[in-house]
Design goal:
The protein is an alpha/beta fold. 35% of the residues lie in helices and 19% in strands. It is built from nine helices and seven strands, in the order ααβαββαβαβαβαααβ.
């Protein structure tokens, strides 16, 4: 594929988050879940590898840079675009031939790749590169959404299951330490409801008044789904989940 064709499928240059805090209603469920899950894995799976070198793949605004540096890592940010702060050390795509500047910094004791792989079309190449960049005994932390709206289009390719991450990680020669699903029924229902709005057909304007009661019910449900005491009283059972977090290790 020609270079100009490849560029079409790369994520557009957008302002990516610098902190894992919700920026809109629909993020009130997934973002806190991710922040808590990633923090816990950094403490458990990354901290024992410090001091050492770490790589943040698809780093964007680098929300975890300070935390990783405080753990004692020498941090390298890698992304297809430079961020507004100009702090991405190496530019490139994880599913393409690795830049010499990145290989010169390898191997890495810890690699972080959060909410990135849904924008990467070639997973075998991506996981092969992630394995190549890891030092023996090094660990890879990956997160990916399972239920979320299309974003950074047209570069939005995957909503992987936990089995997909397991398959591709093992296929690259990595040993899974943990693969966990994030989000319960409340999180799923809240997210889907927040991403859905009532709208009457324009060819039937006389139905417009019906949108008001539906909107009010939606708002009441969104508020109720965030009540912690309700979660303790009633469980919403479902096989659906919002995202997946996985930790892999490269054999020594």
């Amino acid at each position: 594929m020609a270079e100009e064709d490849l560029m079409r499928w790369r994520p557009p240059e957008v302002h990516r988050r610098e902190h894992y805090v919700p920026r809109r209603r629909a993020e009130r469920w997934i973002v806190p879940l991710l922040a808590e899950a990633i923090d816990a894995r950094l403490a458990r799976d990354a901290a024992p590898l410090a001091p050492g070198r770490c790589l943040d793949v698809g780093c964007g605004g680098q929300p975890f840079r300070r935390q990783l540096e405080q753990l004692g890592f020498l941090y390298t940010g890698f992304d297809v675009h430079q961020n507004p702060a100009g702090s991405v050390e190496v530019l490139g795509a994880i599913d393409e031939p690795l830049p010499p500047a990145l290989l010169a910094r390898a191997p890495f004791d810890f690699v972080l790749c959060t909410e990135v792989l849904e924008h990467v079309p070639r997973w075998p190449e991506a996981f092969g590169n992630l394995e190549r960049l890891l030092a023996p005994g090094g660990r890879l932390l990956v997160t990916a959404p399972h239920i979320w709206l299309p974003h950074e289009e047209p570069s939005d390719f995957h909503r992987p299951t936990s089995w997909a991450l397991d398959f591709h990680g093992r296929g690259a020669g990595l040993r899974p330490i943990e693969i966990a699903r994030l989000g319960d029924g409340y999180d799923v229902l809240g997210t889907v409801l927040a991403l859905t709005r009532p709208k009457t057909p324009p060819q039937r304007p006389w139905l417009a008044p019906l949108a008001l009661p539906v909107t009010l019910v939606r708002r009441l449900l969104l508020g109720a789904l965030q009540l912690r005491w309700l979660r303790r009283m009633v469980t919403l059972e479902t096989a659906l989940y919002l995202g997946t977090i996985a930790v892999f290790e490269k054999p020594r």
